[in-house]
Specification:
By secondary structure, this protein is mainly alpha-helical. Helix content is 74%, strand content 3%.
């Protein structure tokens, strides 16, 4: 319902819902690998012209993250030059190209269904293209929402972007489960340090076609996002920076009402008039804290669980690991909603600190019990605690901080740097997980399992101390307030 004085909440929600589709694609693209990676590994293990090693598989499973680093690094420049809206249109197109190319990396040029080194390169190129789209969306979607949302509900609306990311992961878990149907993931057996082979009784359909359908399924939401984003407005703050005050006022009035719109426009003009190109114009700590929030969000190890969930549950002896993966997705959705509905009441810092402690406890629980059949339910519960704690804390709240912690005049560049660091550490964690997880000191031991999760647990507790000591609370502050906050802390 719209009134001239109050603005239209329905209008605000409609444009935010389109923007969070970018978050859904972010989650979909990054988690699709969880169901497809074993079939993909088995396919390339059948190559005749090279030997597909565990290291190669770790790289291939994580290659989209290279694109994420590129996309997030370019996001500041694109958001400033093209605007927030047109940058998101580019991201949607890249998502679609990647989904098609990952499904048929032969592209009508290479021999269909023949695993070769050239095909492996082509597949990774398509995944990198999708990663560039993810990198753009990961930086610009929360920026877009943060710039259109009123300050009193900004944290909640930006948190919906994280909900969309997790919902996208749940959707793709479920889609992968349906695609797999009565088929099973191939059984991969280790034949030496860093080398694997496909067990003779593995399902040939999954190896030949299953992983292709999983990657191709992303074309539907990618196409929808690319079309719908064309119908949302540009953000008022970008329009003011671009000299289009009249259009900015019109959009602000639709969202906030005429009276508030004029005051908000004046605040934006005041901060925009402080033109500066210097990244550290508001001090070193402003950039450092933004970067470290991104680093900790990944260094706690959550994406090692999200990307390899079926593999982990299969190694735990679960009969149908895809079912456990879907259950984990439901738990993740539930606890993300906790953050959505409490972030404006409890604040950002308490949720981050509590989540860090919960993750640390869950990670140590996995480290101590993994590999013991008698304690498999405790291991499963610990993974759920670990994952759920992330979902009400570091998952959504980090994006809230990234969207709001930087002053207007450096936001585009600062967000790009912070999100680039996030994807760099995402790549480090994801590409090292399989080799670390499979480490053995002697045959049959579980050294890699407890070392990996023990390391993540230690990082979780360090993250809690970092937030407690250094991170400012931003609940209830306008984006324009950030300039004064950091000037006072210099």
């Amino acid at each position: 319902m719209k009134t001239e004085q109050e603005g239209s909440r329905a209008y605000l929600i409609s444009i935010v819902m389109v923007a969070v589709l970018g978050g859904l694609l972010f989650g979909y693209d990054t988690a699709v690998i969880s169901g497809a990676e074993k079939g993909l590994q088995a396919f390339f293990l059948g190559a005749k012209d090279f030997h597909y090693t565990d290291f190669m598989h770790g790289f291939t499973s994580s290659s989209a993250l290279i694109g994420c680093i590129i996309g997030s690094s370019l996001s500041g420049l694109m958001a400033t030059r093209l605007g927030r809206k047109r940058s998101l249109i580019v991201a949607g197109i890249l998502f679609f190209i990647s989904a098609w190319g990952s499904m048929v990396p032969e592209s009508g040029i290479l021999p269909k269904g023949e695993a070769t080194y050239t095909l492996l390169i082509a597949f990774n190129i398509y995944r990198v293209i999708g990663g560039i789209g993810v990198g753009l969306a990961s930086a610009i979607c929360p920026m877009y929402i943060g710039e259109v949302a009123p300050s009193n509900i900004r944290g909640m609306l930006v948190s919906w972007n994280q909900f969309a990311i997790i919902f996208g992961q749940l959707v793709v878990y479920f889609v992968n489960f349906l695609i797999l149907g009565d088929h099973t993931n191939p059984v991969i057996e280790q034949i030496g340090q860093g080398f694997s082979m496909v067990a003779a009784n593995s399902d040939p359909w999954t190896i030949a076609a299953g992983w292709r359908y999983m990657f191709g399924s992303e074309m539907a939401p990618a196409g929808l996002f690319a079309i719908l984003i064309c119908f949302v407005p540009e953000t008022p703050r970008y329009l003011v920076m671009d000299g289009n005050d009249r259009k900015a006022l019109l959009i602000l009035s639709k969202i906030n009402g005429a009276d508030k719109a004029a005051a908000i426009l004046e605040e934006i003009r005041n901060t925009i008039s402080e033109k500066t190109e210097k990244m550290f114009a508001y001090g070193f700590m402003c950039i450092f804290i933004g970067i470290m929030l991104s680093v900790f969000q990944q260094a706690v190890g959550i994406n090692a669980v999200l990307y390899y969930a079926p593999r982990i549950f299969q190694d735990m002896g679960m009969e149908n690991p895809m079912v456990q993966t879907v259950i984990m997705g439901v738990v993740n959705i539930t606890f993300t909603l906790v953050a959505v509905f409490t972030v404006e009441k409890l604040g950002r810092k308490p949720l981050l600190i509590c989540g860090s402690i919960g993750m640390g406890i869950g990670a140590f629980g996995v480290a101590v019990t993994f590999g013991n059949p008698a304690l498999s339910m405790i291991t499963m519960l610990s993974i759920m605690v670990y994952s759920a704690s992330f979902m009400f804390s570091w998952g959504p709240i980090c994006w809230v901080y990234i969207a709001e912690i930087f002053p207007n005049t450096i936001r585009g560049a600062a967000v790009a740097v912070a999100v680039a660091f996030q994807w760099i550490f995402n790549f480090i964690v994801s590409s090292t997980f399989v080799p670390l997880f499979n480490m053995h000191l002697s045959k049959g031991d579980h050294f890699g399992h407890w070392f990996t999760y023990g390391l993540y647990g230690i990082i979780c507790f360090i993250a809690a101390v970092f937030v407690w000591k250094l991170v400012p609370e931003t609940k209830g502050k306008t984006l324009e307030d950030m300039s004064a906050l950091w000037k006072n802390r210099r």
